[in-house]
Amino acid sequence: MANNEAKTNEQFEQTLSECRQLFEKKLHDYGASWRILRPASLTDQLLIKAKRIRSLEIKKQSLVGEGIRPEFIALINYGIVGLIQLERGFSDSADISNDEAMTLYDEYAHQALELMKRKNHDYDEAWRAMRVSSYTDFILTKIQRVKEIEDLEGDTLVSEGIDANYMDIINYAVFGAIKLRVER
After folding, report:
1. Residues of the chain below pLDDT 70
2. pLDDT tens digit string along 142-176?
3. By CB count within 10 A, which of 8, 48, 55, 137 is most buried?
4. 3-state helix, strand, coil in the chain (%, to 5)
5. How many CB atoms are closer than 10 A to CB 86?
6. First to last CA, the chain
7. Is-above-0.85 flag for pTM?
8. Concatenated DSSP letters for 10-75?
């Protein structure tokens, strides 16, 4: 493994570990309240986060004092929640324990990590040459695709499914979180 690839894999792991820590703290505070989210509501939550990133990128100012990087972290965590919801469906209550939620979180975070590693190998670190604003635009595109698939009730002809789009959202958000940490 090339030195750059090893460094990148470590950064992927560190970023996902940071996301996991935040998710676990929020799970303590709120339980698995996200289990109530229907697919369209989860998509809209992703949209809100991505639109806020784009707004801050364009305006260069936050009036509520929170920056872009925390929104990328939120996109990662909501992307993982989305993958869980695809598997489990939504519920009328927080119907899983915190331990079960963390087990599911870890399963999908691991899948996302392994996919990022494989893609990074194939794309040869191309993400490092990209602008953070491009990650935002690609995430917004993926969210729009999810909305279209939802509107079609999953009846697509050749498209990847919602799960693949969630994985890509996670991937681009990890890139953004890493670059914003490095560029400080």
Report:
1. 1-3, 182-184
2. 999 999 999 998 888 888 899 999 999 999 999 99
3. 8
4. 80, 0, 20
5. 15
6. 28
7. yes
8. HHHHHHHHHHHHHHHHHHHHH-SGGGG--HHHHHHHHHHHHHHHHHHHHH---SSS--SHHHHHHH
